[in-house]
Amino acid sequence: MGYPQPPSFSPLVLLTLLVIVAASSVTFWLLVRRATSHRQWVALGDWARDQRFHFRRVAPDAAPAPLSALQPPPTIRLSLAKGPTSLLQFEAASPAPAPVNVPRRILWNVLTRELPAEWPATGLRPANATASVLDLFPLTSFPTLGATERFVAYGTDSAAARVVSKSMLRSLLPPDVGLLLHGRHLVLDFSDRPFDAIEFGRMLALADQLAARLPVPPSRL
Question: Would you say 153 and 145 are in contact if contact means Cβ atoms under 8 Å apart?
C-alpha cells in the first residue's frame, strides 16, 4: 500500500499566509503604538469625541487670540475647541529674563474663552508660580492692589487691575491657576497641571464660574 503524495507547492497558499502574517503584525504594531507613544492622543481624542470638541493639531502660525499677539509666535501642539472655548497646549519661549530653573522653551496649558465685553490686558498671577503665561505679555504688576499671598494683580491699566483685584475672581481661582483678561478673551493658565480630561473638566467648570461673575470693565462703568 503506497503513501499519499504530499500536496504540490501552491504560491497562492504562501501568498495568503504572508498576507495574514503581515496584517497581524500591522495590527499588533498599531495596538502597541496606541497604548504607548500615542496614549495621550488617543485619550484626548476619546474625550473630545464624547464632549463634542474638535481635536486637532494646529499650524504654528495659526495661534488664536490672544496668543496670536505673542512674539515670536507660539507653536500650538494640541488644540481642542468647541464654540467660544478652546483648550490649548502650546510651546513658547520662557519669559526673559527667566529664572535659572526655568527651561528656555516651556509647554503651556491654557483654556481660552470668548467674552462679550472688551478688557484691557489684566490678570491675576499666582504669587508662587516660577513662570506664568501672564509673563509672556507686556504687563505691569500692581502689588499694592490687594493681598499678595495667593495672587498679584497685573495689567496695562491700573483701573482695570483694581476692578479685577477687588472682585470675586480672586477667591474663585485656585492658587496654581493664573487668569488673564485680554480683549474679548478670558485665559486660564493651568500649566502646572496635566493636560488631560480630568483637568479639562475642572477648567471648564472654573471658566463657567468666572465668566458668570466677571465685573464690568472700567471703560463701561
Answer: yes
